[in-house]
Amino acid sequence: MSTLRISRPVYDAIRAHGQETYPHECCGALLGRSSGNGWRIEASARTGNTRTDSAHNRYQIAPAELVKIEREARQQGLEIAGFYHSHPDHPAQWSATDFAEAHWLGCSYVITAVEQGKATVTNSFLLAGSTEEDKRFELESIDVAAADEPFVAAAESKKA
């Protein structure tokens, strides 16, 4: 199982974003570095939800905004490691629509359930596979670290 490592401030910001946009879905990009057994998230980028037909249960990020985020991330030595969104009054589990619209293989998709305006459960899913035809979501663990705490994989900490 892969692990998504994320700093406490970024984790909290993602959850707060879901609360702020309730009862609509929030969305954004996760920026980080590959850490061998998953991603190490160092920042997030809030985006607008361009869905006007079903913003309460769908999200879409404008391609131009995504290109801008990717360019700015590269300037910081980061890459788009995945995406996040909220599920207002719905479990933090991917939907058929989430799966159909997920195309960034190897990236993490974080979902936060927001129940009556309050963030509850946050889950992450790795989009695994090598092609669109064999893609699949795999549950991944989330390791939340304090802002000043170094990210150390469990396997690495045993060596020390």
Explain this structure.
The protein has a single domain, classed as Cytidine Deaminase, domain 2. Helix content is 24%, strand content 38%. The protein has helices spanning 8-21, 63-75, 96-100, 154-159, and strands spanning 3-7, 27-34, 39-47, 79-88, 108-115, 118-128, 136-145. The protein is globular.
- Give the name of the CATH architecture: 3-Layer(aba) Sandwich
- Tally the structural domains: 1
Would you identify the CATH H-level superfamily? Cytidine Deaminase, domain 2
Q: What sort of overall outline do the alpha carbons produce when their principal axes are compared?
A: globular
Q: What's the total helix number? A: 4
**From the alpha-carbon coordinates, what is the Rg to the nearest angstrom?**
15 Å
What's the CATH topology name? Answer: Cytidine Deaminase, domain 2
Reading the helices and strands in chain order gives: EHEEHEHEEEH
Topology:
Layout: E1 3-7, H1 8-21, E2 27-34, E3 39-47, H2 63-75, E4 79-88, H3 96-100, E5 108-115, E6 118-128, E7 136-145, H4 154-159
Parallel strand pairs: 1-3, 1-7, 4-5
Antiparallel strand pairs: 2-3, 2-4, 5-6, 6-7
